[in-house]
Write a structure and sequence with these properties.
The protein is built from 5 helices and 7 strands; from the N terminus they run E-H-H-E-E-E-E-E-H-H-E-H. The protein is α+β, with helices and mostly antiparallel strands. The chain folds into 2 domains: about 70 residues; about 100 residues, no CATH class. Strands 1-2-3-4 form a 4-stranded antiparallel beta sheet, with no helix packed on it. It has a 3-stranded antiparallel beta sheet with strand order 5-6-7, with helices on both faces. The longest helix is centred in the N-terminal third of the chain and has 26 residues. It is elongated and about 65 Å long. It starts with 6 loop residues before the first strand and ends in a 6-residue tail after the last helix. The model has no long low-confidence stretch (mean pLDDT about 85). InterPro entries: STM3941-like. This is STM3941 family protein. Keywords: Membrane, Transmembrane, Transmembrane helix.
């Protein structure tokens, strides 16, 4: 089975806006805790080091996610492009050739679903990352899901289970067409 026309899967602007609003809210909460130093009534949470540490971590982490969502809001490119070469993932690695892919699965963490792309050489994708944040994220995904590539379903306008089935069919078609893909 060949793919004559690339399949483009758009990013969901609605879901990106929700993520952006949530991230901004957590940055605001972190700033409020840092500036106002509210009294909690608990000796652990009233500790100034705990307040500074938690609020600073909140501001930094959700500041990065705010930046990510703002960047994705202005991105006009599709989130995924599926063609004869492989899967182009606009959110992290670019082209993932069919010859690198072994399987697809779905994982869930706290009601958040991910499409996990199994790879023949996962370490290659981890070491290729120059961005330290992405490299740590890929390493975390590899340790927890068996692959560095775990794409959040919440950013796409597509049913995750239908996407997985379509990708499995395309992979089987590529393997039938090119036996070296399945090796």
């Amino acid at each position: 089975m060949t793919i004559n026309t690339p399949i483009e899967i758009s990013l969901s602007k609605t879901k990106i806006i929700k993520g952006l609003l949530g991230s901004v809210a957590f940055v605001a909460i972190g700033l409020w805790i840092l500036i106002c130093q509210p009294h909690i009534g608990n000796p652990v949470f009233d500790n100034i080091l705990v307040k500074y540490g938690a609020s600073t971590a909140c501001i930094i982490f959700f500041g990065f996610t705010t930046f990510f969502f703002l960047k994705k809001m202005s991105d006009k490119k599709p989130g995924l492009i599926i063609n004869n070469e492989g899967i182009y993932d606009n959110s992290s690695v670019g082209l993932i050739p069919w010859s690198d892919i072994t399987r697809f699965s779905i994982s869930s963490v706290m009601n958040q679903q991910f499409l996990v792309i199994g790879l023949k050489d996962p370490e290659q994708y981890i070491t290729a990352q120059t961005n330290l944040f992405k490299k740590k994220s890929f390493d975390f995904n590899y340790k927890n899901y068996g692959s560095p590539l775990a794409i959040s379903a919440s950013t796409f306008e597509y049913n995750l289970y239908e996407l997985k089935a379509m990708l499995e069919n395309k992979l089987m078609g590529q393997q039938a067409k090119n036996p070296e893909v399945s090796e």
